[in-house]
Amino acid sequence: MNKIIGIDCSPKVQAAVSDMLGGKCDILYERFHDGMIFNGYQMIILEMGAKEEYVSQQIRKLRYACNFKNIPIILIHDSEKDIFSQPYMIAGATEVLSLYDPLPACKQILSGYLIPNREPLAEELEYLQPFIKNTCHILKTMAAIDVEFKEVYFSNSIRIFGDVSGIMGLSGNVEGTVVVTFYWDLAKTIVAKMMGTEERAIDAELIHDGVSEIINMISGTTKKEFVDTQYYFEITLPSVVVGPGHQIGHLQDTSVSALIFQAGNQSFALHVCIRPKNSQEKVR
Amino acid sequence: MNIKGYILLINREKKFLETVQKSLVDAGHSVLTATTMSSAVNLLSNNTVALVICDSELKDFSGYDLLRFIKNNPQLEKIPFLFFVPVHDQGNAGKAFKWGATDFIVYPLDGKILIERIGEILSPQDGKEKISIVSQDENRGAISQPLHDAPPAQKERRENNRMVPQNAVNIEVSRDAILWLPGQIKNISRQGFLMETPLLGRPGMLLYVRIQLPSGKCVIESQVRHVSISNHQLLADIGVEIGDSAAWTEVYECIIELIDTGRNPAAERLSVSGKIPDIRKMSAETEQPAAETIVVMNENETMYNSPSQSNFHESSNGKALEIRFYHSLVGKQLGNYKAVSFIGAGAMGGVFKGWDIILERNVALKIISYKLSSIDSFREMFLKEARLISQLNHSNIAQIYYIDQSDDVFFFAMELISGGTLKDMIKDHSNLKSTKGLEYLITICRTLDFVSGKNIIHRDIKPENIMISDNGTLKVVDFGVAVVNDGKNKKGKSENLVGSPYYVSPDCIKGLPLDARSDIYSLGATFYHFFAGVPPFEGTSVEDVLLKHLNEDIVPLKTKNPTVSNWLSDIIGKMMAKNPEDRYQRYGDIIADLDLLMH
Question: In Å, what is the CA distance from B566 to each residue of B96, B103, B385, B559, B592?
């Protein structure tokens, strides 16, 4: 039985959710509050309030509380008018649905998100394992931080909801992108340890340099392990992005792996999107 | 630096004062400090002050109160006034210009920039022109206000600075010219511009800037002069300097013209990266369906008007919901199949690259549209047709492996074909080699001959549905709208309009009972397009194209492509006869004629 949490849902939205998912889901309803924890939940349903900024803030907090886990946040509104959903998607919503959207469509979309995630394919593990190993190793050696790989999920896009991300474009035998994403506090901790200084001395410029270095090291070290394989790549210059809610350009028809790591009680993500150039498929 | 008078530094934070004071003293300035307006006024009355640098909020009053006090005092009004403001307060800082402020600097503070700015204000001859930060809310009138006694170079710089309306000029920025991130120009001068972007640079870094001009895309090099980020939840403000170049001059003049005319920019949609797209708003243009197939189940329902767009009869919102449904399935496991990546959406469903975990092989997963799968009659139809197609064991037909339903998702697992389509070849202009084309046409005729032998009509033959695998094997794909001609169709019974506007047969448009000759027409239209490079009929709307199929004679293929033989032109013409009775009646006859042409 899937566990779903409904937040700030009116009786009307609760009835609609029951129509769509009742019977096969265990749905708990709560009021929104700070410090919500979503262990064991497969989906969050939030009813949209009147104020855009407040709703975006709610979504941002919910997304942070998910701690990089792949928990879909579904925003439901009761407006017949078309809502401009981009601010909510940027904040971290997975879907914005209207009670006026066709019920079968909403039901299928929600059901789709509740289908269990797939495990990696053997060929995916072949290139993900070195990234996992090197991410743990680099943070251990550069920042003396123990990092544990927790889980992987796959998506169609690189959506990042952390505060700061280091991005590396890949070229050569493969096309692709690798992105490491942190929340600000963990980034500060890591960069301070890397630079042997106190966290309060860490400013945006040092964060930039530190995160650049991390993605550079992860990509550079992993690159060496792919010599003479179809995954061998060249790295470009790292870019650092601030602010949550960005979609990074990714390859069409190629899945994106999101690797979640744990460092102490905080998490971070490494997105890996790789496609060997000799396997570009147009398929039916 | 030889400056007569003190710099009066006012800030409520003592530690901040100490740090800035030290750097200014190190740079050769004499500095007075204060934390309140009252102590600042006291210092002003007892010392010769050459410059006031003030925070917007003081312990007792605001910095703007102090500014008004100074500018209303004839003895003090000529002292230049420089503000420190946090990013979110830039709007008020803009207003401060109206009250006579000379300049402002945005937190967090960059010591080098501060000293350079002071140098410009107090000693203009030494100062190299810099990019100024101007408030987002500041209007042009405010910028061109007289700057009192600001130095001439400073005044000129301010006048050169132009505010750019919000969302007016969208650009892309990159460190490596590979990964591009969005940016928005906030103000611009001949020396460079200030932009808002998620890309966090650092001073001195080289940045590529890509911008869409009427003459095409332009990439220019720039150098980061300063970076301001007040909050990690916000975007960074980055000022860049650009050297003199013809490209930059063109960009600058184009943007200035855009601001002056006030027209909405034709800034190109960011295609490489950007904020998360609003899937709800996505049109068929951004999520081009794999098949441009029309399915009209009710004659009263209208179709889209553009034949180049998706022609599915539902609304764009319905299409967007379909796409969002397919997106929800990426990375999921459906029965024994893993949905690896989403390839595209057609009229009948979405296609994914999949993996069969039992047989350990790649497959194509065709997920049936929620709209169709929720209709019992459609589900039955798909099952029936899928069973039939599973009997089409032919090397030139994509095989169906399995049909299943998992968590209310109805899907087919099919042969995954790696390669391109005839449509790709047409796009690549590799369509005029008639010998290869003839081989293809003969192969497809033989394949469809086999299909018609099973009493099946494909109903959607078109370039996209003929694939050429990497090893050169042709494959007919997408039997999603195929029907069985089992002789049970009663004359006069209206058929659904199914097919793609450029290739649909007149008999199908008229709703007549169909047989293999309808596919022959579509195949003729497909290869007409292949050899000529253009479809047989074009129009501004679907209706336009359909009417031409019904009423207009085709321009002979030979006229469109003089390199093809008259004989081939005639064969295609006969395949596309309006009246099914005037067409080839069997594929065997076409093959026989084509064989003659080959030898």
Answer: 80, 78, 39, 10, 16
Calculate mean pLDDT across residues B491-516.
78
The full set of domain ranges for chain A reads: 2-114, 122-279
CB-based contact B343 A283, cutoff 8 Å: yes
Give start-end residues of each CATH 3.40.50.2300 domain in chain B: 6-160
Confidence (pLDDT) at B93 = 65
Mean pLDDT of the B242-254 span: 85
| The pLDDT of residue B307 | 39
Residue numbers of B between 66 and 105 with CB closer than 8 Å to A: none
**Which positions in chain B touch A240 (Cβ < 8 Å)?**
199-201
Instruction: Work out the average pLDDT over B44-66.
Output: 82
Characterize the bridge pairing of strands A164-172 and A233-235. Answer: antiparallel
DSSP state of A220: H
Residue from A157, A239, A246 whose CB has the most chain B CBs within 10 Å, to mutate: A239
A279 chain-B contacts, CB cut-off 8 A:
418
CA distance B174 to chain A (A): 8
Burial class (CB in 10 A: 0-12, 13-18, 19+), B562: exposed
- How far apart CA B225 and CA B204 sit, in angstroms, is 6
Chain B contact for A104, CB < 8 A? Answer: yes
B424 contacts A284? CB cut-off 8 A? no
* pLDDT at residue B296, rounded to an integer: 44
**Which of B268, B290, B227, B277 shows the shortest CA–CA distance to B423?**
B290
Question: Given 1.10.10.10, 3.30.200.20, 2.60.40.1590, 3.40.50.1000, which CATH number is that of B279-414?
Answer: 3.30.200.20
Q: Which of B106, B178, B281 to mutate to test the interface with A (most CBs of A within 10 A)?
A: B178
pLDDT at residue B457 greater than cutoff 60: yes
User: B419-598 has which CATH code?
Assistant: 1.10.510.10
Shortest Cα distance, chain A CAs vs residue B212, angstroms: 18
- Tens of pLDDT, residue by residue over B279-290, are 333 333 333 332
Measured CA to CA, the distance from residue A245 to residue A240 in angstroms comes to 14
pLDDT in tens, B80-101: 888 887 766 666 666 677 778 8
What's the pLDDT tens digit per position in B575-587? 999 999 999 999 9
- Superfamily of domain A122-279 in CATH is CheC-like (3.40.1550.10)
User: Complex ipTM, two decimals?
Assistant: 0.82
The per-residue pLDDT for B122 is 76
The first and second tokens of residue B199, run together, are 């890309």
Strand-pair partners of B365: B352, B413
Q: Which fold has domain B6-160?
A: Rossmann fold (3.40.50)
Are residues A77 and B291 in contact, defined by beta-carbon separation less than 8 angstroms? no
* Binding-face residues of A in 115-154 toward B, CB within 8 A: 115-119, 121, 153-154
Query: Are the Cβ atoms of B275 and A113 closer than 8 angstroms?
Result: no
Q: Contact B341/A156, CB-based, under 8 Å?
A: yes
In order of A85, A180, A188, B289, B347, the CA distances from A206 in angstroms are: 34, 16, 9, 45, 51
For residue A32, the model assigns a pLDDT of: 94
CATH class of the domain at B170-261: mainly beta
State which fold the A2-114 domain adopts.
Answer: Rossmann fold (3.40.50)
Beta carbons of A207 and A183 less than 8 angstroms apart: no
- Mean pLDDT of the residues in chain B: 76
pLDDT > 70? residue B490: no
